[in-house]
Amino acid sequence: MSRASQSHSHSQMKLLLSILLLAAETGHEQTMGAIAGQQPPITREGCPDKCGETSIPFPFGMARGCFRPGFQVVCNHSFRPPRAFLADNGGRTYQRMMDQNYTGPSFRPGEPLRRNKAVELIDVSVDKSEARIYTAVSSICSTSGTHAVGRYAFTYLDKAGPFLASPVRNVLVGVGARVEATMVSSFGETEKAMAYRPSCLSDLVGNLQFTTDGECSGRGCCVAVLPPEAPLLTRFVAGFRPRHRRPGWESSPCSYGMVVQSSWYNFSTPDLYGYEALSGRLARGVPAVLDFAIRKGRCPPDGQQPPAGYACVSGNSSCSNEARGYVCKCSEHYHGNPYITNGCQDVDECKLRKQSHELRLLYPCYDDGICSNRVGGYDCRCKPGMKGAAIKGHCTEKFPLPAKVVVGIAAFIVVSVLMVMSHQLLKLKRFYEQNGGPVLKGVKNIRIYRRKQLKQITNNYRHIIGEGHFGKVYMGTLEDKQHVAIKISIKVDKDMKKEFIDEVIIQSGMRHKNIVRLLGCCLEVDAPMLVYEYAARGSLHDVLFGLRRIDIIPVHTRLGIAVGSAEGLAYMHSAVESTIRHGDVKSANILLDDKFIPKVSDFGTTRLLVRGKSVKTERVVGDLNYIDPIYMEHGVVTQKSDVYGFGVVLMELITRRPAIHDDRRSYVASFVQASLDKQARNFFDQAITSEGDIKLLEMVGEVAVECLKPNPEERLDMKQVEQCLVQIMGQSAQHAQETSYHGDLSPAPDDIPLLKETRIARMQ
Ligand SMILES: *[C@@H]1O[C@H](CO)[C@@H](O)[C@H](O)[C@H]1NC(C)=O
Ligand SMILES: *[C@@H]1O[C@H](CO)[C@@H](O)[C@H](O)[C@H]1NC(C)=O
Ligand SMILES: *[C@@H]1O[C@H](CO)[C@@H](O)[C@H](O)[C@H]1NC(C)=O
Ligand SMILES: *[C@@H]1O[C@H](CO)[C@@H](O)[C@H](O)[C@H]1NC(C)=O
Fold it and tell me: Hey, is 568 helix, strand or coil?
């Protein structure tokens, strides 16, 4: 009998059961919810909370007594709808527009013309301690062969005020046929500011046809991330370097620079043409993100009376120290505004966990338990007829029912079981055959499980450990106590039968320490279930970014993970009889055992490939964040697509930022650009600080760049990737020895012979 129809008749029984039980136990299912429909206040009582369409939560405010010092907002009602501006704080917060003419062959700058404007506020997020403002776009436009007009937009924030531009959430963008945009902060007052000059380059001269809309790829548009060690960014401007005339100004007279919220600007080719096309289109400005904090004072130590003027006044709120000052947050299980009295309100977890898979994992309640919200948390109880700790996934049947009810139910069960049983036997056999049982029975290395056995192994499908392509993944324990993961596979129809059998045979033949072993399968179900080796630490993605996050991952562990997964993939690619590719290489598909040994998993999209030939699949499968751009365009899958995906994984491993797909691949592109500029260290996980370690990461970054080449032909193959990583691993061991005797002797990335060789080979 299929799982679906089994659970169907199960649920009928359970329905009956709960109806009978309801008579005895009343009031079981009610949920204590928050008062629905009523929004909690965001500012102090009696204070206006909106300017036009912009919400103004405390500590921001407009009227007297409605804001903390530095957070005053001015609402200008001469606009329809009214617009919000940051108060100038005695002339310390403003935007300065500077116009300057350049004339003559030497491009001599003329007398600048200055004009100040107020800083417009877009919105505020108290949760993230962020506010967004409009900043104007800087431009430089040629008007003739000997004359150009520059317009620069300086942003000045009060140095003693609550705001700093976020180096993480903003980027520098340059737009133009040939432009090197650069960001200047603090205007050269300190040496640090001079050293901190992120810049990016777009050079298209003579190749204007090569632009791509959307993508900021260095062709007409470039982007630079701001190094996280930024000086305190209270003053900044986007400028240009060098400011001399360039050929081709007639068709594309202007270059633009802006400091803007990352991923906000989408390049469009028309921005290259016409006078002030971009700055005219975005005349109001572009959004930039500011971090705000209470700059005066620190969080009071535990148990001490908070000082006068302490900002975290809501009950159920907490305080968190920042580099300068502190911010307030609502405690766990509360949300709202921690800066006002009673601002933090209880979260209704039961309502939230219905909204997404992530929230369900965050607020677990297994076995269809009954979730009920309470102040400061939630309860999850087993449903009627069950007992145990549902929140941990333990519910067991209890039967202390009135005798009459038991008899009634028993009769019902006996009748239905008898009816179903004859049916079921036939069905089991049918599924077994449909799923290729007779063929697979003859294959060694693979064990065929009965449905009953799996039920026992998984303790009645009790522990869900994840979600695969086609359904849940369960944990199980074999008789010898070995843990296994049991995964529902795709439903097999007649046409797919051969393909499925081949797939199982290939997977069971893959025997490598870095590939998750397929141990067996169960075919007596509608969609076959596959039994795999279990990896205790979950996926690399979870360990880097997710629920199983580990704060400190040393570089040698990362190298070990990189080398191991490369070995696994190289092994897979080198299988003798046929060419195999994984098809969905990503950090979520690299599992880690308790010793951090990586195991490549989920061949969900693997297909057999005839050696040397690429197969065109109709639909794009796989994870967009990791997908080969060539695959996206042409649907052609090769082993080189796996190499690309692995390049993204390497990048995640060294930067510890998850890859985010944004059509423009700007994150991958800026990482690659930074690596080529020898600036990749700006991206690295900040937890890695030793110079030797950083050098190692740079070498891994170089390998990642070789994997991320847009042209698949130019990418390394998996075997070469593995060799490069093994060499770096060797350098790392050598380095560890050398540093202990002679200080830092770590090699430069160019010392990796293989990388050099492949480059030379390609040049020939
Ligand atoms: C409102 O904006 C207008 C137009 O920019 C400006 O002239 C005026 O001074 C502003 N009013 C206030 C109160 O800032
Ligand atoms: C730049 O030159 C133009 C005329 O060529 C003039 O109208 C404009 O005022 C000048 N701007 C500045 C800032 O000097
Ligand atoms: C840029 O493109 C993304 C995705 O297409 C879109 O969500 C976003 O609003 C666009 N940004 C602008 C400023 O149009
Ligand atoms: C926390 O919130 C609950 C209700 O949401 C309230 O009863 C309790 O007093 C609050 N705690 C503090 C310290 O204010």
Answer: helix
Per DSSP, which regions of 118-220 are E strands?
119-125, 130-135, 138-144, 147-156, 163-165, 170-175, 178-185, 199-203
**Considering only CA atoms, which of 286, 175, 164 is closest in space to residue 228?**
164
Residue 544, helix vs strand vs coil: helix
Handedness of CA 683, 689, 692, 696 (dihedral sign): negative
Number of other CB atoms surrounding residue 509 within 10 Å: 15
pLDDT value, residue 392: 72
DSSP helix/strand/coil, 4: helix
The token duo for 455 is 């039920």
Q: Is 266 in the pocket of ligand 3 (CB under 6 A)?
A: yes
What is residue 191's three-state secondary structure?
helix
Backbone φ, ψ for residue 543 (5° rounding): -70, -35
Confidence of residue 203 (pLDDT cuts 50, 70, 90): confident
Distance 152 CA to ligand 1 centre (A): 22
Question: Which domains are delineated in the chain?
Answer: 19-39+348-398 (2.10.25.10), 130-290 (no CATH), 437-533 (3.30.200.20), 540-763 (1.10.510.10)
Helices 555-573 and 691-707: angle between axes, nearest 10 degrees: 20
Active-site residue identified among 348, 367, 526, 584:
584
- To the query of whether residue 526 is one of the catalytic residues in this protein, the response is no
The burial of 292, by beta-carbon neighbours within 10 Å (0-12 exposed, 13-18 middle, 19 or more buried), is given as buried
Per the structure block, which two tokens stand in for 397?
Answer: 């049947």
**What distance in Å separates the CA atoms of residue 663 and residue 263, rounded to the nearest whole number?**
10
Q: Is 264 in the pocket of ligand 3 (CB under 6 A)?
A: yes
The more confident residue out of 84 and 396 is: 84
Whole-number Å distance between alpha carbons of 569 and 512:
10
Residue percentage of the chain with pLDDT more than 70: 78
Which residues are annotated binding-site positions for ATP? 487
pTM summary value: 0.53
Residues with Cβ within 8 Å of residue 480, at least 6 apart in sequence: none
Residue found under tokens 């070469």:
720
Closest atom of ligand 2 to 147 CA is 5
Calpha distance 252→221 (Å, rounded): 13
- H-type helices in 435-487, by residue range? 437-440, 451-457
Residues near ligand 2 (Cβ within 6 A):
99-101, 110-111, 113
- Say which residues have a Cβ less than 8 Å from residue 99's Cβ, sequence separation at least 6: 112, 113, 115, 149, 150, 151
Q: How far apart are CA 349 and CA 333, in angstroms?
A: 8
| Residue 78 CB–ligand 1 contact under 6 Å | yes
Q: How many whole angstroms from 265 Cα to the centroid of ligand 3?
A: 7
H or E, element range at 238: strand 235-240
Annotated binding site: 487
Where is 230: in which H helix or E strand?
Answer: none
Say how far apart CA 24 and CA 402 lie, in whole Å.
10
Instruction: For residue 59, give both structure tokens.
Output: 């500590």
pLDDT of residue 632: 67
Closest ligand to residue 99's CA: 2
pLDDT in tens, 490-522: 677 776 677 777 777 777 777 889 998 888 888
Ligand 4 pocket, CB under 6 A:
315-316, 346, 375
Interhelix angle 639-655/555-573, nearest 10 degrees: 170
Q: How confident is the model at residue 403 (pLDDT cuts 50, 70, 90)?
A: low
Is residue 20 within 8 Å of 406, Cβ to Cβ?
no
Show the tokens assigned to 646: 């692995």
- Find the 375 Cα to ligand 4 centroid distance in Å: 8
- Asked whether 170 and 145 are in contact (CB, 8 A), the reply is no
Instruction: Tell me how far apart the alpha carbons of residues 155 and 133 are, in angstroms, rounded to a whole number.
Output: 10
For atom 9 of ligand 4, which residue has the closest CA? 315
Which of 346, 373, 375 to probe ligand 4 with, by most ligand atoms within 8 A of CB? 375
Task: Tell me the C-alpha distance between 762 and 749, whole Å.
Answer: 18
